[in-house]
Amino acid sequence: MNEWMRNLTRTVATGGVVALIGLQTACGGGGVSTGQSNPSIAFSATTLTATPGQTLDISLQVTGASSFTRGIAIVGDGHVGATAIKSQPPFRFSLTLPQDLKPGTYRMEAMGYANGSEQALASAAATLQVALPANALLSLAPPVSTLVFEAVGEQLPIRVTGTTASGAVDLSESPLLSYQVADATVGTVDADGLVTARAEGQTSIALSLNGQTTGNVPIQVLKPALMPSATQLDFGSQAVGSQSVAQALVVTNNLLYPVSILQVDAPPDYPETDNCLTGSPLPAGQSCTITVVFQPTAKGPANAAIRIVDSAVSAATRVFLTGTGG
Questions:
Q1: How many angstroms separate the CA atoms of 86 and 236, rounded?
Q2: What are the beta bridge partners of residue 69?
Q3: For the chain, which end, N or C, has fewer CB atoms within 10 Å of the first or last residue's CB respectively?
Q4: What pTM, to 2 d.p., does this model score?
Q5: Which residues are bridge partners to 228 per DSSP?
Q6: According to CATH, what is the number of the domain 135-221?
């Protein structure tokens, strides 16, 4: 739990319950329980749906409630609502969402604390999907310009806006909005409309709102200066504190003139060695090699990317890294 979370939970009064809700990027973890009386917390429903301004009735199933002498909190990465609830069963939270809450997927985490403790005795997580009702949209404005990429691994978001009686609203991350790419070898798109360039070429992404196609976004990936031998390296599961077998990434100058490799940035869990910097500038058609290992420092997924900065384009080439600390 980060310092923001610690400061937030210090505000929970003894014996009281506070409900807070925040963005999906909140700290993770669910169903964790410790303590001599084996207390536990669970959401009655792990996935909730709502609209901005709606009042939610959230129920928690709690055992060993007497252990949570400091109280139970539902916390998130951003404070978008708070309601004080009684500390005795039934643990029901009446939470009114802000009218201007952006449509998207949010995370709620319930954590119970004992007096004088910063460590939660038990926790559980739930997902909240917030979407505008269909009749609230007066108009929809999908993007019409082409998304142009300069490098493999470069990422750009699709922004979709709508108009309601209250004004403009960003619908890009609405659970009712979906994206479908025509050619995944050129580019891919995630559920939030973030597009990743994969290879030179052209394609398009169809936008659908509540199951109905609303438009297409053209995608163009220019001829990349550097062409990696893979766009992703998967290291699988690795024990914390140990080192995986090394994987080699070959990077080739895809242009007709020399390209200088200015920087190779690797995340902490993925140390690398390379001859790209010492061999720079890289002649046309020639390659250098980056060797990567996975050394997880914590349990759980460790998803990251290597960034390769060159002199030919402003966007860095990115190769994605996946692995799980065990």
A1: 45
A2: none
A3: C
A4: 0.73
A5: 251
A6: 2.60.40.1080
Q: Rounded to whole angstroms, how far apart are CA atoms 35 and 216?
A: 53
Q: Does the bond joining 224 to the residue before it have cis omega, within 30 degrees of 0?
A: no
Q: What distance in Å separates the CA atoms of residue 162 and residue 144, rounded to the nearest whole number?
A: 14
Structure tokens at 247: 């994987």
Q: How many CB atoms lie within 10 A of CB 152?
A: 25
> In what helix (H) or strand (E) does residue 8 lie, and over which residues does it extend?
helix 3-9
Peptide bond into 283 cis (omega under 30): no
CA distance 128 to 182: 29
Instruction: Give the CATH number of domain 3-130.
Output: 2.60.40.10
- Residues 260-266, mean pLDDT to the nearest whole number: 96
Record the tokens describing residue 323, joined without a space: 């692995």
Q: What is the DSSP-derived secondary structure letter of residue 118?
A: S
Q: Where are the alpha helices (DSSP H) in 152-237?
A: none
Residue 289 CA, chain-centre distance (Å), reads 30
Pairing of strands 71-75, 104-113: antiparallel
Q: What is the pLDDT of residue 57?
A: 85
The CATH number corresponding to 226-325 among 1.20.140.10, 1.20.58.2050, 3.30.70.580, 2.60.40.10 equals 2.60.40.10
